[in-house]
Specification:
alpha+beta, 3 strands, about 20% helix, about 20% strand
């Protein structure tokens, strides 16, 4: 049985279809593909590929926490 939560390839637009938050993949730090998305707590996040999508879905908070506030870069690591 395949789970079809809120992950989808974006092909339609609607008022609830929120704009993708990030432009960088929080998993790989490559440019995110706005067609490969997953919705977490009402916010749409994009990743660069299906492999990263699988990792993102497994632990979304781990990857969301890496994104900057504007979603255009990753946070700098502090040691």
């Amino acid at each position: 049985m395949k789970e079809t939560s809120e992950t989808k390839v974006t092909t339609e637009t609607s008022t609830q279809e929120s704009k993708v938050f990030n432009t960088i993949c929080p998993v790989s730090s490559e440019e995110a593909d706005p067609e490969i998305t997953h919705v977490v707590e009402g916010k749409t996040y994009a990743v660069c590929c299906k492999s990263c999508l699988k990792k993102f879905k497994a632990d979304p908070q781990k990857y969301i926490s890496k994104l900057s506030e504007d979603g255009k870069s990753l946070k700098k690591k502090t040691n």
